[in-house]
Predict the structure.
Amino acid sequence: MSVAWTSAARAWTRRTTTTSTSTPTPIISRWLTRQTLLLKSNRVGSSGPLRENSYAGPLLPPWRRHFASKSNASELERRIAAIPIERYRNFCIVAHIDHGKSTLSDRLLERTGTILPGDSNKQVLDKLDVERERGITVKAQTCTMLYNYKGEDYLLHLVDTPGHVDFRAEVTRSYASCGGALLLVDASQGIQAQTVSNFHLAFAQDLALVPVINKVDMPSADVPRVLEQIETSFELDPASAIPVSAKTGKGVDAILPAVVERIPHPTGDETKPLKMLLVDSWYDNFKGVVLLVRVFDGQIRAGDTVVSLGTGMKYTVGQVGIQYPDATPQSVLRAGQVGYVFFNPGMKKIQDAKLGDTFTTIQDAEIVEPYPGFEEPKPMVFVAAFPTDQSDYTKLADSITQLVLNDRSVTLQKDFSEALGSGWRLGFLGSLHCSVFQDRLKQEHGADVVITEPTVPTKIVWADGTEEIVQNPALFPDASDHRIRSAQLFEPFVKATITMPEEYLGRVIELCEANRGMQKSLDFFHATQVILVYDLPSAQLVDDFFGKLKGATKGYATLDYEEAGWHEAKLSKLQLLVNKQPVDAICRVVHHTQVDRLGRHWVTKFKEHVDRQMFEVVIQATVGNRIVARETIKPFRKDVLAKLHAADVSRRRKLLEKQKEGRKRLRAVGNVVIEQSAFQKFLAK
């Protein structure tokens, strides 16, 4: 192909030069020189198809690039159509956060010619700004690659999954669309908590695992220790591990042959009725909801009418395609492929895209069995969000709604606070999920927002046996309510897996015990590494437990957790009162052992942000009718005795009594004016 284009370029050059007796114009000469250099640079190491705007584009004059891109797309589709399902490979990367998944993905895309090497193509699959800034993956992304191995084309689908526990639902959905995985381990850090957790998820999905040891170029790398961990923890053959450096590209060439040889091809029959699994979705302003799908059986084309077996809604397919790495339209998606689909007219609400749902054609809806679905992710952390300026409410409402369109795991409902005004109550998968959402809000929409302290839901089992889940602490019954005395109260727990060096074991156990943890197991899986499993209350986990853990272990500990059900507990609603009036924005359901400590902390901190008034201001933390802690802000005192003679005792007494009566009257009718900035400073970390 490159030779043909070179000949075409030379012929075009000869035609250009023979039409004039003079030498070519400087513009044409510069253009031809640049195209020749691009050809030489692109020819090296390219095993994949030629990409639009990288290979086909530069070798043709500008006015012919449009036709070149069309022929390039048809050439790509022709190559894909010639590949049987036996040469498909769907795989993902299993790893702990920050072990180099996205960087390794970039190297694989470069090796297959899907992208060009260069700084501009770092973290190609991390499309969100917050993903690039934090160096983490939040949304599961996919990319199709064409790889020529031993003279035959293979169609590879790579799914780059999140590594953080808050995004476990993304990980689980991604694994269901794959047949194997690269088990990526950092050569310097070794196996971490989320490596273990994600390994068990992948093992449960029966994925073929290829061990890969990354960052072998680092001075602190200890490859023999990691190989021993892989053998003892996962019972994998250490001889099958591939040492690489994703940053420099060392050893990466051995990964793709291992994917082809050791990961099984997907099963499916394109002659059977359509059976398509919804893996993920996102919202596009012009196309509506775009679905990321895995086709198990049959084919899907533009113009087909499909039905959701989960919702029963019918849609007409507008376009199908693959991510290569950006959206590339195709005429058909076949069994075994992973690609995208959007409808015409488009799906308007992302809530209609039920993850794990099965789609099929209308005529086959009665005979196709739905794929076993996933559980919808349940929010574990709730916060209230308010605009810093109420005049920005409408603008912030649009921004939050836009983000929720792309993240169905966020629950949203309107809220109101007398202290902070109108706002929203948001539910998140975890504290990192909440932090990422706030960062995206600021980066993509420039919105300033006040976020209250994170809370967890509480379950109440009333005396008559009915159950109620309370997500907003302000709606939790007071201790003075007679019904709550006969009710059973439950709080959510998590099973936390902590990996750390042995020298920090004592500190971590103390931290877990101080946070009402219950030890489940303790394993020494290596000479210097310990895995500790605790059941912890979710309320303690969201109260900066991870930050405290990092501080206790100098940053060497890693944490993974999963839901562990409800545990009965003695819970109380702690409220803040200012002059006996409750402040609705500052309210929390806490364990009875933490009431006194948290109450004292609240009144002391809130006192720092309240201005003095003309009368006494009393700040109290209460549980029902019991006052837990109190602080008093003394009033301004006017010197009414300044003009009196020292001997005028009766006049002095009369003026002091009058001032005292005036203060009583002012305290009885006056309202404490607390600036909104005081609440914002109090709620700020």
